[in-house]
Structure prediction request, 190 residues.
Amino acid sequence: MEINREELLTKIKAAKDGNQTAFNYLLDKFWNDVYGFQLKKTRDEYEAEDISIQTFSKAFNKIHTFDESYSFSTWLIAISKNLHVDLIRKKNASIRSKTTSENVTQVHRIADETPTIEDKLIKDQHLDQLLTDIKQLKPHYQEVINLRYFQEKSYKEIAEALNEPMNNVKVKLLRAKKLLAEIIENRNRL
Prediction:
């Protein structure tokens, strides 16, 4: 589907001004490009969806930096590619760290690595605080956060559960994550 350049530039300008409809338009028009690119890279639908939504989240946060003399889809793909590279680096660092940790454990023969009562209490407190933070969101945002992160549903499964188009679910999840991050940041400042 061919996108009219003038219409695209108008939507990008509106998005830079914070227009949510323009964001929805851009997400709808370019989702398949970014998702298809990531699906080829990752060969994993869940990971491709996750990186794609991160791509749009980052793009919408940084849309004011987009230079209209360049291709918007190329800009999105570059963001997506960088996120994928970062993910691979994190995975590789985690593997190296785990391997090193396992070697140290074998050398020192650490007797017991089970979490202490204190570790469990700290972990539970953090989860309790997160749940408290989530409860500050509007119910429809709580629901998408719950379905995505606690029930580990795909975007398609969430769309079916809520009987909403998948793009609405993606936008709703973007907003929910942004609002939740603001709640956590505000609480941490106190």
In short: Residues 130 and 184 are 8 Å apart (CA to CA).
